[in-house]
Write a structure and sequence with these properties.
This protein has 271 residues and is α/β, with parallel strands linked by helices. 45% of the residues lie in helices and 15% in strands. The strands form 2 sheets. Strands 1-2-3-5-7-10 form a 6-stranded mixed β-sheet, with helices on both faces. β2, α2 (42-57) and β3 form a beta-alpha-beta unit. α1 (2-8) runs antiparallel to α2, α2 (42-57) packs parallel to α4 and α10 (215-230) runs antiparallel to α11. It is globular and about 60 Å long.
Amino acid sequence: MERIANLASNFTAGEDIVLFETQGNVGIVTLNSVQTLNALSDQLFAGIAKALSAAAGDVKVKVVVLKSSVEKAFCAGANLKGMVGKKYEHQLLDVNFTKIRQVLSTFPKPIVVAVNSLALGGGFELALFGDVIVCDVNAKFGFPEIKVGLFPGLGGTLISKTIGRHRASLMIFTGENINAEEAKNLGIVQRVFNNVEETHKGAMEIANKIAKFSQYSLILAKRSIKFSANESGSLALENEAIHFASLFSMEAAKEGTTAFVEKRKPNFSDK
């Protein structure tokens, strides 16, 4: 949690275009830059970083929902005007670009992403940092970077782990968009809803379902899932076993198993 706070401290401003609130045990991060269609910028990065820092540091928050208030897009991707004339050393040493990647990749709690309309380029990559992705039926996903002489640089190439190298190559090499149903069939999206309102409601329902469980179990489960996605065989199994065993030193496991035996719902206090 402290790591996220330290990373977020590197950013300035941005709170006005990213909103943060809590509802029960759910933290809600809303992208709110209407004029730019939530295009990626230092200000948007700052808002996201500070919101996630607040969510990480709030012991009541067990899960985060990331969504957009902008009707036409979840996130339209990078602001290409800001890239004109940019040189290799400028991008390589772009502190904010590096920091937001670290914030998103190290955030310890589950993230449910609700995508509406467009999630393109960096916006698609932003969504992919989530643990569960839902969208409305009109959503479009894509990596158009190849069309301007670039390719996904915020973690997008890691999608090959989800959909396979050849399908990832087709998306990235052609820059073509896929629709909501295609994204669901590829395993990128887990639920497709009829409209934006239902999408946001569905994301909250999933988040509230997750939030019923022990925070420690959720955090360690996320760590194990991410580790297993990057490693295989004995290393992944050993990591899982260590995290699983560590839960037995916590009150949540005792409460959960006792409640099961007593045929009642568990009351996880996360002590």
